From TrEMBL:
UspA domain: residues covered: 1-125
InterPro entries attached to this UniProt entry: Rossmann-like_a/b/a_fold, Universal_stress_UspA, UspA
Protein name: Universal stress protein
Homology family: Belongs to the universal stress protein A family.
PANTHER family: STRESS RESPONSE PROTEIN NHAX (PTHR46268), UNIVERSAL STRESS PROTEIN UP12 (PTHR46268:SF6)
């Protein structure tokens, strides 16, 4: 089904649902999973890495062997699309709400931009 799945997270509840779905699909497909967070200009590399820890731990607890946590900078949608291109992902998973916080985008704009520019299939998880 899939060989390389990339999921974006900002540590929010919406992103956590997207991570759970990506883990499920990676387990079913025996796929590698890249979990990516995008660091804001006012955020340290270390705090960005801390956002990845719960998601990577959950993936490993689910039995996934090939799990990578990656920190990128810049525009969230561009960074996720670029990471998917560079990593050779065949599925990009995101929540249906945009990133929150300083220098982030309006609700829903990140998944919208990704859906138009991703180099692979996109799964936008239907969260409340």
């Amino acid at each position: 089904m899939y060989e390389k799945i990339l999921v974006g997270t900002d540590g929010s509840a919406t992103a956590a649902q997207a991570v759970r779905k990506a883990i499920e699909l990676a387990r079913i497909s025996d796929a590698a999973l890249d979990i990516v967070t995008v660091r804001g200009t006012d955020q340290s590399e270390e705090s960005a890495k801390q956002l990845l820890e719960p998601a990577t731990a959950e993936a490993r607890d689910a039995g996934l062997q090939a799990v990578n946590g990656l920190v990128r900078g810049g525009d969230p949608s561009e960074a996720l699309v670029s990471a998917a291109e560079q990593r050779g992902s065949d599925l990009l998973v995101v929540g249906n709400k945009g990133m929150t916080g300083t220098k982030r985008f309006l609700l829903g704009s990140v998944p919208d931009k990704i859906s138009h520019h991703a180099p692979c299939a996109v799964l936008i998880v239907q969260t409340s």
